[in-house]
Every structure is written in C-alpha cells, then in structure tokens.
C-alpha cells in the first residue's frame, strides 16, 4: 500500500497516539557479540527513523519509553551510556525536529537526570513548545505508579489550597494531573522484543488501547514493521466496552 492510502486509512480510523516500549536493544547487541551500548545506539537510530515515519504518516502523538524509574538498577556504565545517547540525540536532531514542526514533551521526573541531560531536555522542550505537528513524548525516569503517586500529591495539594473539591474528583480529574495531561490516551501500544508485559508504562492511559507485540528487537524494527503495526490496529474493531461498531 502506498503512503497516501495509508494516511487516508489512518485519518478514517481512531488512531491519533501510538506509544512504544522499545525493548530488545541489549539482546540485539549481545546476539551479535557487541556491548549492550551498541544496541542502545542502534536503538537511537530507530527512534530517529520512526519519528520520521510517524511524521510522514501524519500521526499526531508518539510516546516512547526511553528510561524507566527501574532502569537506575542497571550497571552505572549502562545508565550513563543511555543518557549520553539521549544528549547526542538532542544535539544532532533538535534542528531537524524544529524544522519538521515536531513538539518534544517529556513524561517523568527529570529533576533526577544527570545535569547535562536535564538541561538538554529542558532546552529542547522550550525550543519546540510552539510546534503543532507531531508531538514526540519521551518517558525519562518514568514509571506509571510513580506518575499516579505524583498526580495524587498534586490533587491533594489542590484540595488543601481550596482549588479543588474532593467530591468533584473523577477519572478525568486524575488524568489531568498526570504527566500526560495535555496528551490524549494512546490508541495503540507497541512493545518490541517479544515480551508481553507493560513494565509500568502508561498504565492509567492505556485502559482501552490496542496492543501489538512484534517479536523482533527494537533495533530491527523499522518503517515496514511500524506500518504493519498500524495496519493491525486499523483492522481491529474497538468498542470501548460497548457493543457498537467503530
Ligand atoms: C530496552 O532494551 C531499551 C531501553 C532500556 C532503552 C531505550 C533507549 C533507546 C532506544 C535509545 C535512546 C532513546 C532516545 C529517545 C534518544 P533493553 O536494554 O532492556 O533490551 P534487552 O531486554 O534485550 O536487555
């Protein structure tokens, strides 16, 4: 199918937001006799490719799980490699993101990031904040349970300062106090690498998302695979708990 037809299909579907758990970098590298860091660098190239494809296909939101609250448990050398890859990504790609009208947003507590990464991320957020094309939302020091605790702390402080009445709290209220307050829920969640688990990713937001678990590692996932994930989604029938056809 050519891109024009696919864009048309996407437009006629409910697909606005794709979230991706980019898993398998380490195994990809180890199976080739490389250091794990090489898998993460290859993973960064795929981030660049998938952003380009998402933009081309006129997807509105793309969320990427880059560093979880649990990833601090990895060897220190791997943690610092991941942040240096993030810094390289911003240094090399920011201009292209700006030119492509991409808005960068972050979910997670970035106050705990290494200073250089925090500064780079804040700079990129600020530089792209007025863009209104594709939103690329990156999870950094992100964990869903941590996010829900963060949301509840904010809600409690709003109640204490008299800005919110506890009887008015409903599911929409909580979603407004999460990191993703400005972003609609994902329609499609993709996890590469063959594992079928959520690993503390966007648990509140994916209540009605469709899931796709391609068996290949993230550094092997590219334009063709991304398009098949999208076509799988389009061929499904989402009912949101009701009976009606979409
Ligand atoms: C999971 O693979 C991947 C990560 C923990 C890091 C993801 C990071 C990138 C793709 C690169 C940089 C991203 C950006 C946004 C610039 P794993 O290491 O758990 O793989 P394994 O399960 O095979 O060990």
TrEMBL record:
Cross-referenced CDD domains: Cis_IPPS
Cofactor entry: Mg(2+)
Binding, Mg(2+): 23, 210
Cofactor-binding details, from the entry: Binds 2 magnesium ions per subunit.
Keyword annotations from UniProtKB, A to Z: Magnesium, Metal-binding, Transferase
GO molecular function: transferase activity
SUPFAM superfamilies, A to Z: Undecaprenyl diphosphate synthase (SSF64005)
Residues reported to bind substrate: 24-28, 36, 40, 68-70, 72, 74, 191, 197-199
PROSITE patterns named in the record: UPP_SYNTHASE (PS01066)
Coiled-coil residues: none
Active site: 23, 71
EC number: 2.5.1.-
Record InterPro entries: UPP_synth-like, UPP_synth-like_CS, UPP_synth-like_sf
Source superkingdom: Bacteria
Family membership: Belongs to the UPP synthase family.
Biological role: Catalyzes the condensation of isopentenyl diphosphate (IPP) with allylic pyrophosphates generating different type of terpenoids.
Assembly mode: Homodimer.
Protein name in UniProt: Isoprenyl transferase
Gene source species: Helcococcus bovis
Organism lineage: Bacteria, Bacillati, Bacillota, Tissierellia, Tissierellales
């Amino acid at each position: 199918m050519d891109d024009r037809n696919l864009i048309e299909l996407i437009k006629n579907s409910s697909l606005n937001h794709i979230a991706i758990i980019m898993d398998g970098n380490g195994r990809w590298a180890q199976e080739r006799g490389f250091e794990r860091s090489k898998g993460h660098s290859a993973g960064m190239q795929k981030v660049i490719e998938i952003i380009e494809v998402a933009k081309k296909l006129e997807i509105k939101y793309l969320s990427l799980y880059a560093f979880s609250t649990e990833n601090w448990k990895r060897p220190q050398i791997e943690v610092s490699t991941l942040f240096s890859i993030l810094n390289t990504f911003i240094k090399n790609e920011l201009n292209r993101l700006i030119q492509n009208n991409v808005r960068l947003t972050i979910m997670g507590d970035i106050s705990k990031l290494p200073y250089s990464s925090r500064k780079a991320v804040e700079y990129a957020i600020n530089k792209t904040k007025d863009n209104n094309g594709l939103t690329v939302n990156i999870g950094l020091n992100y964990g869903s349970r941590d996010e829900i605790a963060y949301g509840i702390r904010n809600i409690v402080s709003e109640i204490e300062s008299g800005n919110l009445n506890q009887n008015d709290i409903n599911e929409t209220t909580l979603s407004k106090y999460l990191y993703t307050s400005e972003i609609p829920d994902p329609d499609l969640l993709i996890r590469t690498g063959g594992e079928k688990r959520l690993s503390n990713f966007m648990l509140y937001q994916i209540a009605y998302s469709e899931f796709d678990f391609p068996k290949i590692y993230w550094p092997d996932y590219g334009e063709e695979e991304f398009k098949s994930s999208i076509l799988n989604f389009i061929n499904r029938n989402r009912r949101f708990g009701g009976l009606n056809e979409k």
